[in-house]
Amino acid sequence: AKAEFFSQRGKELEQHLVDFREELVIGSYVRSKVMPKIVVNQRDVERYYADNIEKYQQPDQRVVRLIRAAESSSVEEIERRLKKGEAFERIAADPTLNSYNPGNAGLFNSGDPVPGNKVIGIEPVNKALLTLKAGGYAGPINAGENRFYVQLVELTPGLQITLAEAQIQIEQILRSTQFEKHALNFRIDLLKRG
User: Fold this and answer.
1) What's the rounded Cα separation, in Å, for the pair 72 and 77?
2) Closest Cα partner for 67 from 154, 149, 151?
3) Are 119 and 66 a contacting pair, CB within 8 Å?
4) Nearest to 146 by CA among 78, 56, 62, 84
5) How far apart are CA 138 and CA 120, in angstroms?
6) Quick check: helix, strand or coil at residue 123?
7) Are 46 and 170 in contact (CB under 8 A)?
8) Is the distance from CB of 61 to CB of 113 less than 8 angstroms?
9) How far is CA 105 from CA 119, 133, 150, 156, in A?
10) Cα-based distances in Å from 59 to 18, 113, 114, 134, 166
11) How far apart are CA 48 and CA 62, in angstroms?
């Protein structure tokens, strides 16, 4: 066992235990000198939260498919095919029915998720979209002279962590950061005095 330990660590077990004890003693000494210097107040926590808000507040993201009826007569055909149970994606890929990105089966934003609640710039379409569950669709939606159908392909809920929920985690981050800074300064000062 000793030979195996030596081949793995490059030192004897007894020497390893001596080194380990020294690390514990030195670590305890450094903590006793550094910990009293660590101060995290509420203002620090609030500032960290505000500076890193994107970690704690992320909006919902939606993948959307859109059909803009190619002609007014297309609406009836779209309705008929949807009622038959045909996939929204297939209808959106039909250029005779859909004049919005049929080559990509009507995917909005090239299929990339769109963050926030302002997904589509056409207000009635956006309003209908926000009421949908994943896989659901709405339409026909009148917007000027155009008739739209919209499908919510995927919804990724956003992250909404309040300051109160993040408080303990932020305090730990700030304490750890201060500890590292003060411990480094303490060791540098010890070396100078040594």
Assistant:
1) 10
2) 149
3) no
4) 78
5) 14
6) helix
7) no
8) yes
9) 18, 19, 12, 21
10) 53, 11, 9, 16, 17
11) 29
Task: Provide the whole-model pTM.
Answer: 0.59
Pairwise CA distance, residues 148 & 125, whole Å? 7
158 three-class SS: coil
State the distance between the two ends of the chain, measured CA to CA, in whole angstroms.
39
Q: Helical H runs in 35-162?
A: 42-51, 53-56, 74-83, 88-92, 123-130
Task: State the residue for tokens 């917007």.
Answer: 143
User: Which residue bears the tokens 């008739």?
Assistant: 147
Asked if 137 and 150 count as a contact pair (C-beta separation under 8 A), the reply is yes
Q: What is the pLDDT of residues 126-175, one digit of tens each?
A: 999 999 999 999 988 988 888 999 999 999 888 889 999 999 999 999 99
Reported confidence tier of residue 16, pLDDT bands at 50, 70, 90: confident
